[in-house]
Amino acid sequence: MDIAQKLREEGYKVTPQRIAIYNVLYAENNHPTAEMIYQSLREDHPSMSLATVYKTMEIFERIGLVRVLDLGDDCSRYDWDTRNHPHVRCTMCNRINDLHDVQVNCLREEVARHSEYEITRLHVSFEGICPECLRKSSH
Ligand SMILES: [Zn+2]
Ligand SMILES: [Zn+2]
Fold first, then answer.
1. What's the rounded Cα separation, in Å, for the pair 7 and 13?
2. 130 C-alpha to center of ligand 1: Å?
């Protein structure tokens, strides 16, 4: 996605900080918190504050560039991939994995049928213990 163009289209200024924030989100692909993004950028962008990261994420969310995830770990996590996909979060190390191969559309249809709602947003998430933490805890 050309985020500079998207920002311009929506009437927002294209700043090096905004571009850098999006690039970290996309490149690291780990559903980071604002704090994690801030830490990654601190060295190259010493003048950037955590508040800037939060504010930028609000803008990105408003124009549909990111999706905010609330996966039950007390802080928002951000996803550049705005398509519907389920997530699983490790309750020990807090990593989050995408579950692109898990089909949730049938769940959506079932919810629509039972509730008679028109479903506009679907968010499925699971919690568990990731393979790495399982390995560590078995030693
Ligand atoms: Zn883990
Ligand atoms: Zn995701």
1. 7
2. 4
